[in-house]
Specification:
45% helix; alpha/beta; 9 helices; four-stranded parallel β-sheet; 210 residues
Length: 210
């Protein structure tokens, strides 16, 4: 099976690509990539957190290109639901590596491995500040929950136990017509780093079931 990881504009190798840095633009970029992989479409789209929101937007905008969705700790399409105080705190971490690491450490279950935290910190620091701020405003204030009810492809929502699993079940899985909900034990929001093997097994089992 072929897999492809993608940098969003404003981050990674695409750090200097101009905006807009919105969920809609990210989904459109992903659509262009999939359309260039004609022999591979439709594809299984895997997304974590904000990436899961991009995956859902793609499935709505280009359903013929999406075979299935794997959504890990997904931001709901109704927005993140932060208080204004919480949102202001997160905005303040943009461009502040120490503050970003402090916040990211809280998203793990227990003490994060220093290597994993360092990788996250480097990734966060590598984002263009304008991209980080504009994308934050886009995903925290997303408002297309009702549209996700039209997603007809099989989906799996993988919810870390020590995050907000009830939100993922109620605001994401419950809206998707063909969603399977999986509670992943002993991990927090960054389950992709805490329990990567378990997530890989869930993805493999999900694809085999199709």
């Amino acid at each position: 099976m072929r897999s492809l990881d993608v940098d969003l504009r404003g981050s990674g190798e695409l750090r200097d690509i101009p905006g807009p840095f919105t969920i809609e633009r990210f989904a459109a970029d992903l659509r262009e990539i999939v359309e260039r992989l004609e022999e591979s479409a439709p594809v299984v789209v895997v997304g974590h957190s904000m990436g899961a929101l991009v995956a859902m937007r793609l499935a709505i905008d280009a359903p013929a290109l999406v075979r299935a969705l794997v959504l890990v700790a997904p931001v709901p399409a109704s927005g993140a639901g932060f208080s204004e105080k919480g949102a202001a705190y997160l905005r303040a971490t943009i461009g502040d590596a120490a503050a970003a690491r402090k916040w990211l450490a809280r998203t793990f279950h227990g003490e994060p491995e220093s290597e994993a935290l360092e990788r996250l910190g480097e990734a966060a620091a590598g984002n263009h500040p304008d991209a980080a701020l504009q994308s934050f405003e886009s995903w925290t204030k997303a408002d297309f929950a009702e549209e996700t009810r039209k997603i007809s492809v099989p989906s799996v929502v993988i919810a870390p136990e020590h995050d907000t699993p009830e939100v993922y079940e109620r605001k994401v899985a419950a809206l998707l017509p063909k969603a399977k909900f999986v509670l992943l034990r002993d991990c927090g929001h960054y389950a992709i780093l805490e329990r990567p093997e378990a997530i890989a097994r869930e993805i493999e089992a999900f694809i085999d079931e199709e």
